[in-house]
Amino acid sequence: TLNCNDPVQLKDEGNKHFQAGDIDKAIECYSSAIKVCPDKKMLAVIYRNRSACYLKKEKYNNAASDASKAIDVDAADIKALYRRCQALEKLGKLDMAFKDVQRCATLEPKNRTFLETLRRLGAEIQAKLKTTFSTDSRVQNMFDILLDEEMGKENKEKAANNLIVLAREDAGAERIFQNNGVPLLLNLIATGKPEMILAAVRTLSGMCTGHKARAMAILHMVGVDKLCSVMAIDDEEIALAACNLFQCINDSLTGGDKREYGKEEALVLDASKDLKTILLSLLEMVASKKVSGHGRDQALNLLSKNVPRKIRKEKDNSRTLFTIDHGLKKILKVCGQVPELPDQLPLTENTQLIASVLLNKLYDDLTCDPERANFKDICEEYIKYVCTADVSNQSNMDKTIHAVNTISGLLQGPFDVGNALVGHQGIMEMMVALCGSERDVDQMVAVEALIHSSSKMSRASFFITNGVSLLKDIYKKTKNERIKIRALVGLCKLGSAGGDDYSLRQFAEGSTEKLAKQCRKWLCNPQIDTKTRKWAIEGLAYLTNDADVKDDFVEDELALKAMFELAKSKDKTILYAVACTLINCTNSYDKKEIIPELVQLAKFSKQHVPEQHPKDKKDFIEQRVKRLLKAGVTSALAVMVKADNSILTEQTKEMLARVFLALSENPRDRGTIVAEGGGKALIPLALEGTEAGKVKASHALAKIASISNPEIAFPGERVYEVIRPLVSLLHTDRDGKQNYEALRGLTNLAGFSEKLRVKIVKESALPDIESYMFEQHDQLRQAATECMCNLVTCKEVQERFLQDGNDRLKLLVLLCGEDDEGLQTAAAGALAMLTAVQKKLCTKLTTVTLQWLEILQRLCLHHNPQIQHRGIVIVYNMLNSDDSELAKKLIESEMLEILSVIGKAEDSPKRQEALDAARTCLVKAMDLGLIKPFTNTS
Questions:
Q1: In what residue span(s) does the UNC-45/Cro1/She4 central domain sit (predicted)?
Q2: Would you say residue 258 lies in a domain?
Q3: In whole angstroms, how far apart are CA 541 and each of 343, 382, 493, 497, 578?
Q4: If you placed Cys at 611, which of 502, 669, 820, 880 could pair as Cys (CB 3.0 to 4.6 Å)?
């Protein structure tokens, strides 16, 4: 019978129940024992035991409390300490649990359980610290610093950067959002300080990226109007950041988010209303006087990027139609602005060109004639009061200028629409009237319109009869340099309407050179403003169709440098003209192949045959390229590539790619291109643009990658982006030269690091490289084999050689037997590395062709020490392959004699590697017991 007043008996009874698994009864016994136990030490043991019961029952608070009572009696009670550690860990109090197990490990340093728990808790605490460090208190702390007037600038910058970085990760973004972040960010914007606004906008961008629900919530909390007012601020960086925020919101709302939203799906998914609000607000910004030039640029950019369809196969162009109905007149208003007149919209140098590009994209996105007719009707409606304007009235005159300038904008955008308007009754008369006006600004606008409207050969011939006399008249009479230069460009453009066809020159011999000389003079004059000097480049873009002009221009280093400086300026409307001029100087435009037979036929049938200028021959082009490089063309191109995407159109990108390809033709010039950042600049051109542009840029990249140190040519992570364009050149529809250069480039990259090799394999380059190893063309076959030689250290490549049912290994062995030494070196090198790492291949090698032994012997006897060394290494790998039959077969053949002869030869620096390898083979054969060491008898 159990004595209810005997603590020892009750404790023992509790122990029995515990061992039997009846935890509730054990707790009952221990609880009764505690009530009657007078002895402190005994009490501690009972508490400790009850703590174990509570751990089993998952009552962690009770378990920790009982263990603590035992520890109070004996601070070194190791069992109680460990039990409390277990309970505290379950309660999430990791640092307290860590302290307990630390004590346990100190008391019993060799106990594995304690050490393992100590290590695990240590790691968990580190991980938790990392997250708590970026948690709520930290977020609040950052806002406190940013909103504190007293805080120093350095601390504020640090806090702002931390906030931006935190918002880029989903967990951090959610934390800022949950901790009242959006109202606090609005407070930052309200300070009006540019650096605070920037930090807030960039943080919001991070929070809106890839999370539809959060993007929607933020859009509603901040409001579209507020976001537009931030983008309207006259600060380029803020406008760009706000544009990026709008883009992040748009991407998240239009499907950048792949999350499952469950019950809230319906609330989150209908973003169409918000997207329409954003679109209308952006259109409102386009023609608003309250918006800065930078803000207007970004509003136009957002429309350009998000309104027209990205993929033509999509049927729905409703966004474009909606934009045309609600905003076309606003965009036309921007095109028609004349900054010299009072009361105009704030613009940057680039605004009107961005607007023209947007008009072009919208027009291109239309799918049928009625849609195009509607577009033209709206433009016509906007222009129509021109013809009725009373020129004597000043405000009407301003309206006329505005209308003519709008047509200029259309001529730079959807040319057909502008062209149709120019042909309308009264428009030409308007231009003539403006040319005769006393006001400089009227003449300037009219001359620009004349220039833009003579873009097609057919139109130009009409202007040569009508416009030339007008322009010549203005050129002679005007005292204003800005008008003079524009009139000259008009004459240049008309004078070069025949392109580079030497026989179609419009002007008298020598007059184009005179015009060009005048353009170069203006270009080099720093007293003239950028906008006007830009027209000098426009003139040269036309005149450099003439080879005499190109040659004179590239010899004028001052003029070249002046053009490159302008290309780097903020005014990016200049890019197209600079690109055209460089295309002409390097002759990198598309040249149609002239077949002699067809020329004879054309002459016979009295057809026109284009003639090539003597200075357009190869050696002249090479000289021009050298001069351009010397004047710093590469750094100018590198800056041009970074221009705003709307201005850097697909066509301009293609032109820049063509220029780069022409510049990198000579291997000796590639170092200069790399040194000035050309390698880096080519990557975006190779990844996006027209198909032809991407191929040209990829080809230039391949040329640079084939002979440069990748770390210098493509610094940082960019080197991994080079591989895809190179692999795209391997396709059979590319020409042989491109295949060859791409293989050379990949060979160089593959020889550089394992990470690059893995990336080449991931980009599915192997099948193409292998197919070129079977190619009949010697150079292609060698380049592919060299590339493979550099790739064989990759596990995936080795596995392809180990697979059965293919001729990969056989091809490599047979290539070792070819006569071409370069090919032999590459194939033998690949084979030497493969047989070193994959012993199975040593045996497989003997089964792929009956000629294997003969080929191997030829390698070992080769006069080229490099090839000989590779051959002997293959033999060593075979002796070392754990296949005793194979080793025996080799030593029983003539190979032993070959190795002995080589091994006994005198040391020679040229052949030392081969001699040492042969001696190593003989030592291996001795170790295997296949030959006996030779001993001299005394």
A1: 301-494
A2: no
A3: 34, 32, 9, 12, 7
A4: 502
DSSP per residue, 14-46: HHHHHHHT-HHHHHHHHHHHHHH---HHHHHHH
Structure tokens at 490: 């008009």
* DSSP secondary structure letter of residue 924: H
CB atoms inside a 10 Å sphere around CB 124: 14
Domain end, chosen from 358, 390, 424, is at: 424
Residue showing tokens 């009874």: 13
Q: Is residue 407 part of a domain?
A: yes
What's the per-residue H, E or C state across 703-716? HHHHHCCHHHHCCH
Among 343, 345, 338, which Cα is nearest to 294's?
Answer: 345
Which residue in 531, 528, 550 sits closest to 540, CA to CA? 550
Q: Please tell me the pTM assigned to this model.
A: 0.73
Number of domains in the chain: 3
* CATH number of the domain to which 87 belongs: 1.25.40.10
The gap from C-alpha 595 to its chain's centroid, in whole angstroms, comes to: 41
Q: Nearest Cα to 84, choosing from 117, 106, 62?
A: 62
- 861-882: pLDDT as tens digits: 999 999 999 999 999 999 998 8
What tens digit of pLDDT does each residue of 401-453 get?
898 899 999 988 898 898 888 777 677 777 777 887 888 888 888 888 888 87
Residues in the chain: 938
Q: Do the beta carbons of residue 927 and residue 890 sit within 8 Å?
A: no
List strand residue ranges (DSSP E) for 764-869, in order: none
**C-alpha to C-alpha distances, 797 to 719, 788, 875, nearest whole angstrom:** 21, 9, 22
Other Cβ atoms less than 10 A from the Cβ of 2: the count is 10
With CA atoms as reference, report the closest residue to 587 among 614, 607, 559, 567. Answer: 614
Domain housing 300: 270-424
Tokens of 465: 């009869």
Q: Which two tokens stand for residue 587?
A: 């002759």
